[in-house]
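Fig. S4 source data, part A: sequence.
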Amino acid sequence: MSTLSKKQIYGILAQFETAAEVYQACEKVRDRGFLKWDAYSPFPVHGLDKAMGIPQSKLSWIVGATSAICGIGGFLTWVWMNGVDYKYVIAGKPFLGFAGYFLPGFECAVLSAAIACLIGMLALNKLPQWYHSLFRSESFKRVTDDKFFIAIEASDPKFDPEKTMVFLKELGASNVEFVEQ
């Protein structure tokens, strides 16, 4: 750490060998109070988000609200166009025949839900992200094969280079290294 200042490093990267090790390490990192950190694994680890203390995603609320608003808007648009604005009798049907307006409203709800899901997912995941500092690490390339990692960012309020390095080694990390910005 003597050659790198806190401003020059992205954080500390710790490598673990098994899913159980990274799961237990995530619980301890969470309990220590770190806020800006993440875990990486080659496959989904059941319960890892809970071990990390990640709250439930807001995406379902975004999709649900958008779908409801656009579905009601689509329904009311058809009601207005065919029952108020441009009254045109077709096959003797009433101007405000709500059964015929349900399907366009439903289609608006489904289409807007799909679009909101895509845009919300990209925004909440901060995508597209073309570069990440962890790509500088040679050992991090194994995350897609068989290794598990925890990265604690230097911008975390509890981050102290020496103490954090010792803490991650105590968790059983097989390799701990600083990652440059």
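Fig. S4 source data, part B ends here. The two ends are 14 Å apart (CA to CA).
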